[in-house]
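queue> pop job 88
queue> type: inverse folding (structure -> sequence)
queue> payload:
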């Protein structure tokens, strides 16, 4: 039998509650205390709205074009984590336990159609939406109820992967004992505000449920080395965040949810501040059990590396042999760091760093008068630079060195940035012209630059591209306010959704591919604060970040790191973004009720996902250019100090 020695946990048990913003849940004493007994995922987000979208994405790593609570028009054909588990050489098993589900009421048969059996609801059972589960008798029989869970725990047969969905009362969706489904009058029995009543109701049930299992604690009925994940599907709001007459959607605001990791392998009291979502959970399970990937939003997602005692840190600054008075750029090519810089004359030189030593400086063969950027594919390194207002491109290969004939891409250019995407098979270049309008150009599969397109925004400050999985992000500085803004560009078919009008959703959530978002949002962290409308509960607030000087951005292990100067000092500041699977809206996002038919809801987009908290990189001060690249599993940040010396800092796990 094959064995896996990399495991941190031997079992994972996921329990998902309903529709609450993280801050509301943390107001409850039991949920707050539970967070102190495990690892509090303080920056965790749902994927989409409404509920069913989050359940489906939690096992399929994509939305499967589902943006509603209605049953799929036909069973979904996408692969799920079930496929990875059953294909594993480690003889793993799985089960899904549905509270109040009666298996005898839905016995397997050819052509069966899953149905509700209130307070059990099929929309909260993601396994019932997929063709290769509902058409497979042995798989369908792995969907059981709470009685089967107790039996498996008693008999020591809990599978490696198990999912538990509480019923519509125990998960905090509806008031205990009511049945509003199909009975509008019964909605009058629901509390006016979802929190705190329904949070408290869910807490009472969870405390009783865990109490029956002696969990958490040394006498737990869970097998040793079981990771228990307590999470919510999505964030819903009451009071000012509900749907009064001046609101357009049910879920305005950040999709930030309560999530806590518990188990005997967990050190109590930990807090995870990086950004995570349901795709991160799939990735963590894949990593733990060596399952491979579904190849979707799980493939490059940020995962719970801290469970393996891996935490990202920036090391102390190191000197380099160079003095750089002007512009500078860097990129990784063939596992080596390449750095290009401008001499006082404007002539460009380059050097390489192999992780231990810098090479001697050598000429590139061209001159520049403005900014430059670099990125690489597997085949070549590309340098973009501004010479007398013209944007030029020059390639380098390991066998031939630098090319002799630069290609002109645009005129009247002031700023430039570049990044590789599509698993480093393509490049995107963004530049701003003399009117501060921003444009972008991509290469095709044969490395040829395509026609430039207008991004739709302008920036008089620095611009920087970042890549996170299939998403490209353009970060722009506002020179007037020093605020940094960001817009998105999706490159994946599986992050495109379209839907006809329905009860809870419709075209207002449709998203696109290979286009820039019609909205920009601040580079900001979501927090919470007191709100006059709900004095006993803290409401979401946005904390935008400001910055000055050169921007630098690079991605490592599913986390996109951004660095820049402080607004009024030379200290290098940094924040990260790691929410995977965000989509690019087809229409502009707006909450104006008078524009319901022509704007987007913002669900599953930058409007609902936040950055990490901002920190300073100790010992790093800059007065000039900065650049960052991922090389051999670590980030290398280059920055020019006040006296023109080029220094470097390594960052990694």
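queue> result:
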């Amino acid at each position: 039998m094959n064995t896996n020695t990399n495991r941190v946990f031997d079992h994972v048990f996921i329990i998902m509650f309903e529709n609450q913003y993280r801050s509301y849940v943390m107001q409850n004493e039991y949920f707050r205390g539970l967070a102190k007994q495990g690892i509090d995922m303080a920056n965790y987000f749902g994927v989409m709205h409404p509920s069913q979208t989050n359940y489906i994405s939690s096992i399929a790593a994509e939305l499967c074009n589902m943006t509603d609570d209605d049953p799929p028009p036909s069973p979904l054909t996408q692969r799920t984590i079930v496929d990875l588990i059953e294909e594993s050489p480690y003889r793993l098993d799985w089960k899904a336990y549905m509270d109040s589900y009666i298996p005898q009421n839905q016995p397997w048969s050819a052509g069966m159609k899953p149905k509700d059996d209130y307070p059990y609801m099929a929309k909260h059972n993601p396994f019932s939406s997929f063709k290769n589960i509902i058409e497979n008798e042995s798989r369908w029989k792995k969907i059981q109820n709470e009685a089967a869970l107790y039996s498996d725990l008693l008999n020591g047969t809990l599978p490696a992967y198990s999912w538990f969905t509480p019923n519509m009362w125990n998960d905090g969706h509806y008031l205990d004992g009511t049945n509003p489904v199909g009975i509008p009058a019964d909605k009058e029995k629901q509390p006016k505000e979802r929190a705190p009543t329904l949070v408290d109701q869910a807490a009472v049930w969870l405390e009783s449920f865990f109490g029956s299992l002696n969990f958490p604690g040394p006498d737990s009925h869970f097998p040793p080395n079981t990771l228990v994940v307590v999470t919510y599907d999505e964030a819903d709001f009451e009071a000012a965040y509900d749907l009064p007459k001046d609101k357009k959607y049910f879920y305005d605001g950040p999709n930030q949810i309560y999530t806590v990791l518990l188990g005997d392998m967990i050190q109590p009291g930990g807090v995870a501040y990086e950004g995570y979502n349901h795709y991160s959970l799939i990735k963590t399970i894949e990593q733990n059990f060596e399952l491979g990937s579904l190849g979707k939003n799980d493939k490059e997602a940020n995962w719970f590396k801290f469970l393996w005692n891996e935490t990202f840190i920036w090391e102390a600054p190191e000197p380099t042999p160079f003095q750089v008075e002007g512009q500078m750029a860097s990129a990784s090519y063939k596992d080596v760091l390449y750095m290009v810089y401008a001499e006082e004359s404007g002539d460009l030189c380059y050097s390489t760093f192999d992780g231990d030593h810098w090479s001697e400086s050598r000429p590139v063969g061209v001159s520049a008068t403005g900014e430059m950027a670099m990125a690489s594919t597997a085949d070549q390194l590309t340098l973009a630079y501004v010479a007398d207002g013209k944007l030029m491109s020059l390639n380098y290969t390991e066998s031939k060195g630098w090319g002799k004939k630069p290609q002109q891409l645009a005129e009247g250019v002031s700023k430039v940035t570049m990044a590789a995407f599509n698993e480093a098979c393509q490049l995107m270049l963004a530049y701003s012209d003399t009117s501060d309008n921003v444009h972008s150009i991509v290469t095709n599969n044969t490395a040829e630059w395509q026609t430039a397109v207008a991004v739709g925004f302008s920036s008089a400050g620095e611009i920087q591209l970042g890549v996170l999985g299939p998403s490209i992000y353009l970060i722009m500085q506002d020179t007037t306010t020093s605020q940094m803004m960001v817009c998105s560009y999706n490159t994946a078919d599986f992050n495109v959704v379209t839907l006809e009008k329905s009860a809870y959703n419709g075209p207002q959530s449709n998203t696109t591919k290979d286009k820039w978002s019609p909205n920009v949002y601040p580079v900001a962290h979501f927090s919470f604060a007191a709100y006059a409308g709900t004095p006993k509960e803290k409401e979401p607030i946005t904390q935008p970040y400001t910055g000055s000087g050169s921007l630098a951005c690079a991605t490592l292990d599913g986390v996109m790191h951004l660095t820049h100067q402080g607004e009024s000092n030379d200290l290098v500041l940094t924040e990260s973004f790691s929410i995977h699977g965000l989509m690019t809206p087809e229409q502009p996002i707006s909450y104006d009720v008078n524009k319901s038919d022509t704007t987007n809801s913002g669900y599953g987009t930058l409007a609902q996902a936040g950055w990490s908290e901002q920190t300073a990189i100790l010992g790093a001060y800059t007065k000039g250019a900065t650049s960052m690249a991922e090389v051999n599993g670590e980030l290398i940040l280059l920055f020019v100090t006040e006296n023109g010396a080029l220094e470097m800092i390594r960052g990694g796990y």
